[in-house]
Write a structure and sequence with these properties.
mainly alpha
Amino acid sequence: MLPALDNFVAFGTETMVQTPAYIEAVVGMVMDIFQEEKVGAMDRIWGCKLAECIMLNLRGFIDQHVPKFVEVAMTVIASNELKVKSYRIHLLEMVINALYYNPIIALRTLEANGWTNKFFSSWFSNIESLTRVHDKKLSIVTISSLLLLRAEEIPTSVQQGWPRLLQGQVRLFTTLPAAIKRREEATREEDFTLNEDDGDDDDEDDPDAWENDATWTNDDNADDNQAEGDIKDEGAAYLEFLNEEAQKFGADVDDDDDLEEESLLETPLDKIEPYGMFKSSLLTLQQDQPQLYQSLVKVLSPEEERTVQAVCQQADVISMQAQQVQMNGDTQH
């Protein structure tokens, strides 16, 4: 049922905004899932996913509901009775989504209930369990948003540990390339399996069967100019650097309870370029609040500093690639 509701929220955003009763209905579904005692942990994961879909797609239109999402998730997390790892991660991401939606509202709710320390401790102690690309991007964009808070907006209860945000960001970026690679491999395997299920039919019977294959292998502009090659070299250097860092941390540890990528469900996070967002947040913090910026970067180890520099360089590479694609497109038109 989630894919249908996800599509309804994602593609019917304008209709939902114009009809508040629809928003109340889907929010009510989330609350019912958590309030029904007979509903188990695995079923409540669907409630977490629906809450995430609502917060990601209806940004700016559900302020009054965000505290409810934080409260139902943190009530379970604070109980210390979580036995299912995947349920714990989805509950944490329910709160992370609330922070990304509106840090002030979410932090105010956490503070009012004495949950701020508990949440941040749980979030960063479980950061190695954020194995999917979606998990990592969600935390990256949320931390990037938190970095833009004014010093006076940071709750006193977590001010001392605030520098851990940047250290967590470094860890997420260190393991992101490996997660992206795993997702691409899983997607290819899924596509290959689907093709095998078609039997021995010739490709001519289904002209769209391998329509997207070119996006994986073809490089029509490989010989365009030396500049493009330089950009790719810089990107490869970044990946090689982070691969070395990831191996130091043991990034590719297998865990049977790790969450699987959900290739069929798209979210607004898919459209966000995390490297550029992080670099922009960091530069804004450095410019607007130099004292707070210094308090964050001074705790970084030399390796963590190099990772931050590599991420910022990768943001430049991606930006240059996007500009080049735009220029090529304009030329063809």
